[in-house]
Amino acid sequence: MNRARWITSVVTLSALWLFGALVLAPRVQIALETAARETLERQPVLDRRLDRLQLAFDGQQARLSGAVRTAQDRSAIEQTVRDLVRAPTPLAASLGLRLNPVSAVHNEIEVVPLPPGWLLLAATGPQARLLGTAASEFEARDLARSVQEGWGTRGGVVQGTPRIDSEHHDEAASVTATLRGVPAPQSRAQLMLTRIGQPWKSLTPEQSDAALLAEARLHGVTEAEWQAHVLPALQEVREAAHKQQAAEVEEHRRATLPRGHVFIATRGQEITLRGEVADAAVKGALLDEALAVFAPRRVHDEVRISPQRRPGGEFASVSTALLPAKDSDQKKTLYLGLDGGAWKPLDWQVAGDAQPWKKDLPADLDAMLLQKDSNELIAWLQGADKTLAEAHTRQAFITLAVFGGKAMLCGQLAEESARSQIIAAARRAYAPRILVLHDELRLDAGCQPASDILHTVKSLPQAPASNAEGIFAIATPGSPWVVLPVTRDLVEAGGLVRSKRLPKGLSAMRVEERSLEAIEQLRDWISHLPTPTSTP
């Protein structure tokens, strides 16, 4: 070979090598990368798990880098690229073949799991809702069951299961810290948040939405999840917290009110109960007991009901020990009972404005609240010309409310016989089509006796013609019924006074007090009636 041919051969080989390096090799690498990615994307186990993978070829050697969620993903990617990639090489392409051209795989992929999901407990006392997002159905189910057990063993009830989002979350490596720290139910509203696998963090519902959202983001809550799920639960907890705070304020206010007091004075065959208590239930229980224990003596009811007295208590039992001793020459006694305390005997043979009970008063009860009752009872026991019973004997009356399939009897009568006659007459007139209720028609020995009730029994008003109508009737024993159509104004405060239809001598305040249950039910009934439409 001469020099010229030698030089020509070298130049030709160099050109071919340069052509392969600059033209063929890049094309082969691009084809290999494309084929490898297409092969990876066809693998079901790697579906939606390749977004952080980086794949490159150096000749026919694959280089894998980036991050995947699990070690299984890392191994699956390496095996797929090494064994399953099919692409034409220059020689194989000329023969129409697609072979595995990957000569080596360099696996530098890091295993970096996605963050776990989150849980939120929104509690309004022992009742709680469980919200959150988990990585799998198994994780969500197991977490919900464990939280429900941890909360329920301490007297609470949890409802709800986390949502599933396997694209953005992986299962936590350990959930021990989360399950060991499940909060305990409390009487107050609570809001507790955790990243699955971490301890719970208590949030303050009174904080601003922006501050709570920032805290929620640190635990993995997205903006969309905050708006759709967390914020509605937060509003429920806030409302519950506001109601609890208002109830606590009201409870504190009531606890600071003075407790109720009742004097029991005995003069011969007459007994007077006088004082002030918080609610009708306490008064009713005390009077029922006194009527049974002191029979056949006449019991006069002078116990007032006031919202300015402390509610919730009760008086000591009434017994015959409060009466004068049988072998005593003195037939008069005076006792003071305080809400939550025992009956204390008092000296009634003192000056009218004396305070023989002052030493027994607790610090939270002002003596001025008892002074008037004490003065009048002492004057009565000392033989005032006009007896206290005569001065305060009340007029008996019956009220009847017929509406919505019910007939409610209320009022006050002195004799059980008169009460029984009225109830029996109402049942004959209205049952069985109308239910007759009579619990609020009470015996009150302080009422005037019913000398003739026959006319009242015989003249019960007819029931309304339709279920959309109601009547409210009033009668004193022996007199005809005064029938008032039920209107929205009648059932509001002061409605009976404004009607100007009460029988003469009756106190509107007393009628409203004794008929309170019927009036409240009438108010509720009439509020649900359809509003009449005017005909053009």
Task: Summarize the SSE layout with pairings.
Blueprint: H1 3-41, E1 53-58, E2 61-68, H2 71-83, H3 90-94, E3 104-107, E4 110-111, E5 118-124, E6 127-134, H4 137-152, E7 157-159, E8 163-164, H5 176-180, E9 189-195, E10 201-203, H6 209-218, H7 223-255, E11 261-267, E12 270-277, H8 280-294, E13 298-305, E14 332-338, E15 343-345, H9 368-381, H10 388-392, E16 397-403, E17 406-413, H11 416-430, E18 435-443, H12 454-458, E19 471-475, E20 482-485, H13 495-499, H14 508-514, H15 516-527
Parallel strand pairs: 2-3, 2-4, 6-7, 6-8, 12-13, 17-18
Antiparallel strand pairs: 1-2, 5-6, 5-9, 9-10, 11-12, 11-14, 14-15, 16-17, 16-19, 19-20
Describe this structure in words.
The structure is a single chain. Strand 1 and strand 2 form a beta hairpin. The chain is built from 15 helices and 20 strands. Residues 15-24, 91-97 and 385-391 have low confidence and may be disordered. The chain is of the alpha/beta class and 536 residues long. It starts with a helix and ends in a 9-residue tail after the last helix.
SS elements, strand count: 20
What is the makeup of the main sheet? 6 strands, mixed
Report the radius of gyration as a whole number of Å: 44 Å
Task: Please give the alpha-carbon distance between the first and last residues.
Answer: 123 Å
Would you tell me the structural class of the helices and strands?
alpha/beta
Q: What overall geometry do the principal axes of the alpha carbons give? A: elongated
The residue fraction in helices comes out at 25-40%
- Beta percentage is 15-25%
